[in-house]
Amino acid sequence: MSTLRDALTIIIPFKDRLAHTARLISYLQFSGFPGRIIFADGCPDPAIATLMADRAAFPNLAYTYIRHPPSDSLAGLFARMRDAADQVETPYVVWHSNDDFYFVETLQRAVAFLDANPDYVGATGELADFMMQPRPEFGPLNRVYGALAIPGKVFRAQSYPQPQALDRLNAHTTELFNNGPAYSICRAPLFREIWRTIVAANPPDWHFADRYFVSLLLAAGKLHGEIGYLALHQSDGFTAGLEMITRDPTWYHWCQRPEWLEAFNTLVQTVGEAIAAREGGDPAVASNRFRYQLLAIVGRAVVDVHHPEGRIEVPMPSSAELVGRLQAYPETQWILRFLNMATTTLEQRLAAPAPAPAPAGA
């Protein structure tokens, strides 16, 4: 099996939430993350750039740091992801939010599976939500460090072994749109291709970007979803994706946006063309079949909003059950220890005054 340093790169894009980013960098150093890392920084504040320039502070990490022009737009995020993907030199890659904690043993399991199964384009696992218990005495680090609460919510994962792209996509849409594929460990050339496509399409919101990534991944090949728990994901941290979900909690709300229809038509055309390019056939036929699959989700969302008594609820484990499952991962104890440290050297350095700029010509 490949070592993680030779096999896998995690891409970490970020723009704000400096304390969360510093927390993640601290944890990766603390735990000695064995893979490669690309930090894609779009933050106007140079604090993280200053930290990452001191490579001696991170002897356990193999990383590339890319400073991008600050941007508040999703197009800026898409460009950061594309540019970071172009820097990947390992055969596999996964993207990493700055409020996630990945389980290394699960990443290793994913790499081993993909090494042994060249007909699969990716592998993924379940994500368990966590929240930080409020600690106002921590000041700006409240909800960044402290005690974990595990509410029992899980982003589920499923395998898609169907030989045909439209069958994989149909299985995904009929399975209540689990988000596991969005967090897949992917083959790097496909990951690059997908993000170049997303940049070219420039979807108007994160819901569409997510649909592009998952749909183009499943259009390209089979996905393995049974590698265990992949990560702990902080559900009470603010992200662009959370903002979109809060604004448009269901497809019923989302599809009423004025830009939705044009973006939807572009998505189904792009995915249909991707299917036809790999499997042959008429791209218009593939696009129309994919269109009907997605419109079935819209119809179900309308029914759910107007007749909530008939809504299909996704079963979730109890909090106690989920904690028991996560305790089987030794890294859980590392994470708990780390988060209870309350503050770290990086945060202290982050809060320090920035050094005065050097005189011109110095």
Tag the structure with descriptive keywords.
362 residues, globular, 48% helix, 7-stranded mixed β-sheet, alpha/beta, single chain
Question: How does this structure look, described?
Answer:
With 362 residues, this protein is of the alpha/beta class. The chain is built from 15 helices and 12 strands. Strands 3-2-1-4-10-6-11 form a 7-stranded mixed sheet, sandwiched between helices. Strands 5, 7, 8, 9 and 12 form a 5-stranded mixed sheet that branches.
Strands of the biggest beta sheet: in what spatial order? 3-2-1-4-10-6-11
Q: What is the overall pLDDT average?
A: 84
Number of beta strands? 12
How much strand content do the residues show? 5-15%
Multimerization status = single chain
**What is the radius of gyration computed over CA atoms, rounded to a whole number of angstroms?**
21 Å
Structural class: alpha/beta
Low-confidence parts: 343-347, 349-362
Helix and strand pattern: HEHEHEHEEHEEEEHEHHEEHHHHHHH
- Count of alpha/pi helices: 15
Binned, the helix content reads: 40-55%
Distance between the termini: 50 Å
Structural shape: globular
The description of the largest β-sheet is:
7 strands, mixed
Kindly summarize this structure in a few lines.
This protein has 362 residues and is α/β, with parallel strands linked by helices. 48% of the residues lie in helices and 15% in strands.
